[in-house]
Amino acid sequence: MTPDELKSLVRAIPDFPKPGIQFRDVTTLLADPAGLKAVIDGLAAIARPVDADLVVGIEARGFILGAALAVALGTGFVPVRKAGKLPGKTVGIDYVLEYGTDRLEIHAGQVPVGARAILVDDLIATGGTALAAAQLLREQGAAVEMALFAIDLPELGGMNALKADGVAASALMDFAGH
């Protein structure tokens, strides 16, 4: 599928979660068998040369894409969750949002020192969550080799923020506006 064909499968929901936001809903893309396969195939083609040990998916839609990508690449999968969602001992990182703070966590010891990781999420906007996830992985001794997204909202600068932080980043499609 071409990027334009993929884009046609992404539903736009105006004024969600607040007025002025054009929410890009990937659930319609995920429900389309050819679209889902094209996204995973496209992400895998970009990721394969990295020869990663782990794919790390960011909650929540990053779990869907990340787990499928891990299967395609023959790697393990690690979920990065919001605080309080994982059982057992966790390690985490607090980070700043537009209106407050949040926390991301992974299971303690789940990311081996020296692991080569690929971060995955459905969409990148400002990059705050992806940057926090990359820092959390680095604090565990992992190398964050790449961050992959189905969608980029380039006007919000997230890809540039990741690249400035030393993380190669790529998306299969982009949408103007936010």
Automatic annotation (TrEMBL):
Pfam families: Pribosyltran. GO terms for cellular component: cytoplasm. GO terms for molecular function: adenine binding; adenine phosphoribosyltransferase activity; AMP binding. It is an enzyme of class 2 (transferase). GO terms for biological process: adenine salvage; AMP salvage; purine ribonucleoside salvage. It is found in: Cytoplasm. Residues 27-148 form the Phosphoribosyltransferase domain. Its EC number is 2.4.2.7. The keyword Cytoplasm applies. Pathway: Purine metabolism; AMP biosynthesis via salvage pathway; AMP from adenine: step 1/1. It comes from the Bacteria. Gene3D superfamilies: 3.40.50.2020. It catalyses: AMP + diphosphate = 5-phospho-alpha-D-ribose 1-diphosphate + adenine. Homodimer. Belongs to the purine/pyrimidine phosphoribosyltransferase family. Catalyzes a salvage reaction resulting in the formation of AMP, that is energically less costly than de novo synthesis. HAMAP family: Aden_phosphoribosyltr (MF_00004). NCBIfam families: apt, PRK02304.1-3, PRK02304.1-5. This is Adenine phosphoribosyltransferase. It comes from Sphingobium phenoxybenzoativorans. The gene is apt.
